[in-house]
Amino acid sequence: xxxxxxxxxxxxxxxxxxxxxxxxxxxxxxxxxxxxxxxxxxxxxxxxxxxxxxxxxxxxxxxxxxxxxxxxxxxxxxxxxxxxxxxxxxxxxxxxxxxxxxxxxxxxxxxxxxxxxxxxxxxxxxxxxxxxxxxxxxxxxxxxxxxxxxxxxxxxxxxxxxxxxxxxxxxxxxxxxxxxxxxxxxxxxxxxxxxxxxxxxxxxxxxxxxxxxxxxxxxxxxxxxxxxxxxxxxxxxxxxxxxxxxxxxxxxxxxxxxxxxxxxxxxxxxxxxxxxxxxxxxxxxxxxxxxxxxxxxxxxxxxxxxxxxxxxxxx
Length: 315
Hints:
- The protein is built from 14 helices and two strands, in the order ααββαααααααααααα.
- By secondary structure, the chain is an all-alpha fold.
- A two-stranded antiparallel sheet has the order 1-2.
- It is globular and about 75 Å long.
- It starts with a helix and ends with a helix.
């Protein structure tokens, strides 16, 4: 045994080492492969963020002709005293609260059903996922028609089932408008969360489920003790991404309500779009973008911290 060890050590010491220049070139090779992606990341992510923050410190109003006057944090002070900004923040939070829990619950339920062996499950997977790949513009215009005063929703609620005494003007009120937009968000997002949960469910060890079944655990017990801990990372991912997406809602609000009436359904992105690209106040619009980015970052960090604590408790 000692002879074998000595022989291996001698072979290692006698093995030729690559020259220093070749080792240096080999050490730089991974960075050369990473360089294009890193430069692209700098160009399309980092630089726009830095530029937006820089513009937020200026009175960059093209209409007023003041394109380079440094004003410091005045745009952020303006946002603090802007009631429409706070209304947009509340509306974004309401939209997130209306859409995230249903997407998680319905997506997990659909994934559980489609994970079982049943005829036609591939077809149903495609049908559930189809709204995800449908254009936001197309479905927003479709839902605008559905929730119009003479649309299909009012026809079903008033003319067919008589659940409402009169036709509801869904898109003319703040809360009804947000409800209509949220319905679109849930319909379009369930398929995405379903696919993530379905992939997670297919990774649950079958041996653990069979062992729990042999021990006499029912479906609810097996889900709580085996399945739920196994799909917890997917649940964290889905929740964080849906919250981020909820605060970034834009196209559906812009096309269905336009932020009206009287800015009652404005969300953060539509208000930022209005300030920057309609009123051409790029300084204030950039400040709103920076505030939204900071808000989403803080919320994501809080969620990850809470979920990490929950994961420890579950484990």
